[in-house]
């Protein structure tokens, strides 16, 4: 049996101990890109780490619930993760668009509210805005259904393009009632009112969990980290995991994490080892 990594913080050790002591009360909630799936230049080519499904299938029957919480559309995350029809994951939930959409393995369907009209307006204006700035060549637009994202990873100077885009995209988003969610060389324009923190707290309440594990890799995961910290103050132990080695981890996320693991491979190792421990009880 593999050894479990030891959290660096007392709160994290308490969270892990609670999960191991009563796995049937644990909610395991996981980001997708950068956490279960390696970051790749083209998000459409992102796929879950090959050991993700076996690890989750072994763990899921022993815990209260397993959910994937992502900024992607729920249906896209299901396809890229290969989550549909997997034995052991019959009760998996995928919360897409930061919790606005929900896919349940039980029904195989996605439920979602009516799209925000500002997304269509931004989508129409965005190409013209980008074309006015030759220094931003190499940036590209990702259609996300209920949101739209601008990536700078392919620009000549990705970080400079990212910084240059912040203000004009914030202005565009504000004019249409949206917000900008920054990530690793990506700026996403999306509706306000829902983030991973709100979604996580709602899901934990719904599941009746008595402990929670959350793993993420980027700035969009900070609200979920804050939600777990709030749950801990209210008596629900939690373990915060940052996916990313020392050179790749988002500094602010790594500093708040109880445990930093080596990217999706490290997350999968943690899930597999946790599954071995709770199944052997």
Walk me through the structure.
This protein starts with 9 loop residues before the first helix and ends with a helix. By secondary structure, the chain is of the alpha/beta class. Helices cover 38% and strands 19% of the residues. Helix 2 (52-59) packs parallel to helix 9 and helix 6 (196-207) crosses helix 7 (222-233). The model has no long low-confidence stretch (mean pLDDT 93). The protein has an eight-stranded mixed β-sheet with strand order 5-4-3-2-1-10-11-12, sandwiched between helices. It has helices at residues 10-21, 52-59, 74-81, 117-131, 158-175, 196-207, 222-233, 251-256, 263-279; strands at 26-30, 65-69, 93-96, 101-104, 109-111, 140-143, 148-151, 179-183, 186-190, 211-216, 238-243, 259-261. The protein has nine helices and twelve strands.
